[in-house]
Amino acid sequence: MSQATGTTASRKGLSRDDVKSLTDRVLSFAKADQTRIAVNSGVSEFTRTAMNRITTSGSTADDVVRITSAFGRRVASIETNRLDAASLEKAVRDAEALARLSPENPEYLPEPSGQTYLDVSGYYASTGNLTTEDRGRAASLVLERARAATTISAGYIDVSAGARAVANSTGLFAYHASTAVASTLTVRTADGSSSGWAGGEGADWTTIESERIATDALAKCEAWRGKSALDPGTYEAVLEPTAVGMLMSRMMGAFDARSADEGRSYFSKRGGGTLLGEKVFDERVTIKSDPAWANGETAPFTQAGEATGAETWVENGVLRSLAYSRFWAQRQKVASKPGMSNFIMQGTDTSLADLIGGVKRGVLITRFWYIRPLNPRMLALTGITRDGTFLIENGRISRPVTNFRFNESLADLLRNVEILGRPTRVCASENSSAGPPIIVPALKVRAFNLASLSDAI
Amino acid sequence: MRDDEPGVDRREFVKLAAGSALAVAAGLSSVEVEAQRNTAPGPDAVERDLALLALDAARSAGAVYADARIIRVLSEAIETRERQITNVTKSESYGIGVRAFVGGSWGFAATRDVTRDAVVRAAREAVAIAVASDRAAPGTTRLAPVKKVPDGRWITPHVIDPFSVPVESKADLLFRINEEALKVKGVGFVTSSASSLKESRLLATTDGSLIQQTFIRVSPNVNVTAVAPDNSDSQTRGSAVAPAGRGWEYVTGLELAARAARYANEAVAKLSAPPVEPGTWDLVLHPSHLWLTIHESIAHPSELDRALGYEANYAGTTFLAPPDQVLGKVRLGQSLMTFVANRTEEGGCATVGWDDEGVAATSYPIVDKGLFVSYQSATREMIDLVAPFSAYKDAPGHAYGQHWASIPFPRMPNVSLQPAARAISEDDLVAATDRGIFIEGDGSYSIDQQRYNFQFGGQTFWEIRNGKKTRMLRDVAYVARTPDFWNSMSMIGGRQTYELGGALSDAKGQPMQLNSVSHGCPAALFRNVRVIRTA
Q: What proportions of chain A, in percent to the nearest 5, are helix, strand and coil?
């Protein structure tokens, strides 16, 4: 892994100094009781392939400022990407006029001040300096091999580089530069009878193994040829890290105290209150977040400028933390705590092969598609397996099988964990853009509900 | 409508789509709609010069084709919960996106900096990206010709510009909605929101087209949650109000306060409703529910880019492929089933004057009396690829990029199920059902990447016994294989049951872009569908 640096001069997006003068200028126009400025600045670049050719490639530069003005508890925001002085002054005036017109928000609290932020750099020059040619070369790696194997490839390389910042009228200022890249690849047989997928995600381009992604997607497509039906039912299952990540990313919002206190969450306690301090999952399950996690860094502050630090949410199966908004914390007389910025699930050194080796009769799942909530109180989801699903018998992959629709509660899943593999950062979004960092192991679970068959390939 | 009766024909559809019935419902006469189209604003002189400058720069740098779009999006979101405001935000996003075609490859560059120097830089960068891609992997794409539109102007037909309505009166309306819901005993929470969008879109192409359009869309929403007294359960009734390509008059015409009271009672009733008995049921599906099933299982699988493989790494492919083996051959439903793809339907979220390649909006059947006859979601570069087996001679006008920073690519038009010619009511459909479930509102939804296996929930579920709606049920979802499901549609409602549903956030593409789209449909009866219990 290369170091999270890069000289400031060569970085994409507004520099710390540029942002500071921008936010100072906005604050100089401000007449409201309280003013907050959030800045999102940077470049997005991509190369997309399909049908064994590059279909599109492009680059977009944008800098967006969000100005929030408050008079007492009357609050409103204006967002704009026009950053000349006249436009900014108009935006401040508009935000203030809109705030005066807005009904009071009784939950609005004065802007935070006196925050101390972790020193986190998430900007990797290896990613920030990638060119169209670099992306083209990486994307082209698979094209010849796919053609030679009479398969059809479709892939996507998504790159972003820039900065986020927050400033407010109490003098608070926070700035974080970051990069992110995701590379994903689908390989299908020319007759459409098999499909394989592989991918990777990181802040640092040098951790993206383009050769490995090409090889794995081709191999998965080859291995899934000749699939046959397996009866729906509840099976032992091995979920590869991407499959685990796609499910766990849906849990990030679940660790919320307010919805638990209000009786709308899995973490609500019957009769009132929350399940804090109680055993909710298998004791092998530990879930953390950490803005400084290498290659999975996040800004050490929220959109409102509150400091975020490392946090343990679940420790050995026991619920240790829930997020408290500043309003809810005041109401419940506890300290406020921002929600998860990344999702880190502890694992072991066990290899995927060893996880498979522990299965008598079960199913190996590469990844999922179209995951949607079924029941928030149960953390229940539905979705479809995709791009490589296999029957495991007596510790070995015995044959490729057709896809399934699953209906499964994440709470049940985390209670049914038997073995955890090695944690890795995965591309967990269905659209393959680099998202909030999700670092998870493969999981062997004793039961997974594969509810119906899907003919999809 | 019985199985053997023909669906509405194309001429009737065009009349329905552009005709007076829907426009009057929205407060506009057809004469007013026409007048508004004729007075749609033209391009700003400065923007026009900048767009043409970008095209010159792209051509000089070696582009064989280029287009430039200067787009300004104004959006506003007002959100409330119970008796308080939770968000008031107005946004403006402004920029230029230039797309260049070199050899057989595309390059795209976009910037918020809409000045002469920056626009030229963006155009040159788009060409450089196209050149680099073409070197890495030479492209063979060819673009079908399009008609030149030297002075195109279009505006969404509307009575009240949503941005002319003050924030306070919008908040007042939302608070009145919440108050109605909170009057109902057992209701714990209510959220409501109103979002509005107004977009100015200037397109200039090296084919000589210059088109200025203004799009207006509004999207109100209400969600009511009831919580059991002992905290052991909560049930929500929501997601029931469709967005529309209309003005603020659409929102005020919805009688949202009365709806909120009904939703509140339904949320409370859901807490004590018995769960469904899993098994095979007939289903009567209300348009507020059926639009989403159409979107997922008819509109998405009939996208041409999926059939060709463009979306294999994300949205997926389709069971309606390969084209030469399915077009005119696959029967998706009985003869009562006709679907029309259009970007012309009054109030439709995908309704426009021209697409992002300067092609005029069109309307044509994709499923004709049950038979799959055409794909939709095609752009200029696809016409050549499907020439041997397709009815397409020209691009149908389906290129769309979400905003200035998004590269245009094939997007779904409105796809609508045509109603029965006879005046069949919702009650007629219920009366024709011995044992069934009436479903309203869209709920949990999921479908596989080839659009075979789907599972849909809903908002409210009423048991039908012997031709009558009886008690409420809960935890209902139906699971089916797309062709089986649509072939089980045995009766559809008439025009009086026809409504538009839709979404402003249909995701597709990499980088992912959101599309706004509507689906019109009557209520409809489906026989023998597999129903599961979700809790």
A: 25, 40, 35
Q: Is A261 on the interface with B (CB under 8 A)?
A: no
Tracing tokens 């051509």 back to the chain, one arrives at B59
Cβ neighbours for A10, distance < 8 A, ≥ 6 positions apart: A125, A128, A129
Same domain, A376 and A250: yes
B116-136 vs A132-148: helix crossing angle, rounded to 10: 30
**Which amino acid is present at B6?**
P
Convert the pLDDT of each residue in A267-312 to its tens digit: 999 889 999 999 999 999 999 999 999 999 999 999 999 999 999 9
CB contact under 8 A, A263 and B234: yes
CB < 8 Å to B167, chain A: 76, 98, 101-102
Under an 8 A CB cutoff, do B129 and A59 touch?
yes
Q: Of A188, A221, A254, which residue sits at a domain end?
A: A221
A25 CA to chain B: closest CA distance, Å?
19
Local structure of A371: helix, strand or coil:
strand
Q: With an 8 Å Cβ cutoff, is B105 touching chain A?
A: yes
Residues A217 and A255 in one domain: no
The alpha carbon torsion through A50, A51, A52, A57 (nearest 10 deg) reads -30
Q: How far is CA B471 from the centre of its chain?
A: 32
Measured distance CA(B451)–CA(B481) in Å, rounded: 8
Helix (H, G, I), strand (E, B) or coil at A198: strand
Residue A3 lies in a domain: no
Q: Which of B166, B510, B535 sits opposite A378 (nearest CB)?
A: B535
Same domain? For A207 and A253 the reply is: no
**What is the pLDDT confidence band of residue A212, given thresholds at 50, 70 and 90?**
very high
Using alpha carbons, select from A384, A402, A450 the residue that is nearest to residue B454. Answer: A384
Instruction: Give the separation between CA A213 and CA A387, rounded to whole angstroms.
Output: 14
Q: Are residues A171 and A314 in the same domain?
A: no
B389 touches chain A (CB under 8 A): no
CB A303 within 8 A of CB A38: yes
| Residue type for position B397 | G
Using only C-alpha atoms, chain A has a radius of gyration, in whole angstroms, of 24
Residue type, A230: L
Asked whether residue A179 falls in the same domain as residue A243, the answer is no
Give the pLDDT confidence of B311-320 residue by residue, as tens digits: 999 999 999 9
pLDDT value, residue B234: 87
The reply to whether ipTM tops 0.85 is yes
A287-289, strands of its sheet edge to edge: A318-319, A311-315, A287-289, A343-345, A438-440, A424-426
Nearest to B488 by CA among B297, B328, B289, B341: B297
CB A41 within 8 A of CB A246: no
- pLDDT under 70: residue ranges of chain B: 1-27, 239
How high is the pLDDT of residue B8?
35
Number of domains in chain A: 2
CA dihedral B91, B95, B98, B99 (to 10 degrees): -10
Residue B103 CA, distance from chain mean position = 34
Range of the domain at A212: 8-221
| Separation of alpha carbons A316 and B19, rounded Å | 64
For residues B104 and B139, the answer to whether their CB atoms sit within 8 Å is yes
Hey, how many other C-beta atoms are within 10 angstroms of the C-beta on B49?
Answer: 14
DSSP calls for B331-367: B-S-TT--EEEES--TT-TT--SB-TTSPBP-EEEEE
Q: Cis link prior to B511 (omega < 30° from 0)?
A: yes
CA distance linking residue B195 with residue B212, whole number of Å: 23
pLDDT class for A199, splitting at 50, 70, 90? very high
Residues sharing a CB contact under 8 Å with residue A161, sequence separation 6 or more, in sequence order: A11, A12, A13, A42, A43, A123, A127, A128, A178, A179, A180
Considering just the CA atoms, what is the radius of gyration of chain B in Å?
24
